[in-house]
Amino acid sequence: MSQKISHAGIIESINGDCIKVRIVQTSACAACKVAVHCHAAESKVKIVDVFCSDTAKYTTGQAVTVWASKTVANKALLLGFGLPFLLLLAVLMTVLYVTGNEGVAAIAALGSLVPYYFLLWWRRDAIREQISFHLED
Fold first, then answer.
1. Checking DSSP bridges between strand 4-15 and strand 18-26, what pairing results, if any?
2. Per-residue pLDDT tens for 11-60?
3. What is the rounded distance in angstroms from the CA atom of residue 108 to the CA atom of residue 96?
4. Dihedrals φ, ψ of 57, to 5°?
5. Of 1, 29, 60, 69, which has fewest CB within 10 angstroms of its CB?
């Protein structure tokens, strides 16, 4: 089993050391032959930033393959969904236990996500170094 997650894409723009690559993310059934007639098939166009020190060998419109390791993908899922979910549950249960008021507990749980996501935004440069895409040669 491969330890890489890769997508084919096309370079949209190059700015300094940042290459913007357009990838088409498809669901499993989008590649099916009858997907044209089926409403279940879906695909989404996404732009991903790839930071690369050697951007001279790439040009706008060039077809490339963008990849990330499964470890990086798992870390991104943990930071984006896993930890906020655990924080939400912990604050919800704690405030509900202390106050006995479900409304206050719900507001406090949702409010606890604001500083969490602010912290992610504040540390985005450090996170970008750990969680990044690469271009396949």
1. antiparallel
2. 898 888 888 888 876 665 555 655 555 555 566 788 888 887 777 788 88
3. 9
4. -85, 0
5. 1
Q: What tokens appear for 22 in the block? A: 């357009």
At position 10, the amino acid (one-letter code) is I
- What is the distance between the alpha carbons of residues 134 and 137, in angstroms, rounded to a whole number? 9
The two three-digit tokens of residue 58, written as one number: 């790439």
State the Cα–Cα distance between residues 23 and 124, nearest whole angstrom.
Answer: 22
**DSSP state, 79?**
I
Question: Residues 135, 65: contact at Cβ < 8 Å?
Answer: yes
DSSP annotation of 39 reads S
Nearest to 10 by CA among 29, 24, 25: 24
d(CA 28, CA 36): 14
* Model-wide pTM > 0.85: no
What are the backbone dihedrals phi and psi of residue 126, each rounded to the nearest 5 degrees, phi first? -70, -40
The rounded Cα 132 to chain-centroid distance in angstroms is 10
Pairwise CA distance, residues 99 & 79, whole Å: 29
